[in-house]
């Protein structure tokens, strides 16, 4: 990974919407984790990473995406199913799959093996009053899943993430 565009800090990161109706994503920046914003032409909104936790040639990271699915799905449950199916197509079986909510929006937390590394994915489906639907994902991975600093950072990222739609 390249050096962070933003130095490691402990304040929240707000990922601004790219279109007027799109949700705003706010996530914590755990101590020691750097942040690189995503490029405008991709669904990747940002990558958090921690060089100090690098093990076995791999830097632990959390990739945040936001993709509009309007026209591809009609319901938030279909958005979650679409994202879940894409992960299964890539990695095969999931280890765990748990339903939940994030900021009042339906979500699923999944765990799986990604190229020999344990990964956790948080999938969130967001629908606004105009029936536009987005899928937000946060994928966290490492080669050292038992590291207490990684465990704490992952818990903080997944438990403190917030999603808000613009007020009409």
Automatic annotation (TrEMBL):
Cross-referenced InterPro entries: Lipoprotein_LpqN/LpqT-like (IPR019674)
Gene3D superfamilies to which the protein is assigned, alphabetical: Mog1/PsbP, alpha/beta/alpha sandwich
Alphabetically ordered keywords of this record: Signal
Region (Disordered) location: 1-37
Database matches in Pfam families: Lpp-LpqN (PF10738)
Stated name of the protein: Lipoprotein LpqN
């Amino acid at each position: 990974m390249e050096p962070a565009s933003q130095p490691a800090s402990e304040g929240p990161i707000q990922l601004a919407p790219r279109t007027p109706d799109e949700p705003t994503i706010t996530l914590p920046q755990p101590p020691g984790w750097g942040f690189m914003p995503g490029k405008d032409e991709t669904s990747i909104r940002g990558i958090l990473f921690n060089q100090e936790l690098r093990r076995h040639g791999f830097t632990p990271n959390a990739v945040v995406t936001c993709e509009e699915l309007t026209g591809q799905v009609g319901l938030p449950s279909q958005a979650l199913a679409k994202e879940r199916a894409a992960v299964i197509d890539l990695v095969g079986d999931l280890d765990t799959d748990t339903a939940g909510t994030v900021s009042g929006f339906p979500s699923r937390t999944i765990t799986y093996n990604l190229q020999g590394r344990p990964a956790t994915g948080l999938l969130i489906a967001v629908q606004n009053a105009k029936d536009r639907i987005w899928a937000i994902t946060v994928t966290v991975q490492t080669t050292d899943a038992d590291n207490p600093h990684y465990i704490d950072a992952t818990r903080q990222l997944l438990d403190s993430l917030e999603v808000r739609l613009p007020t009409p």
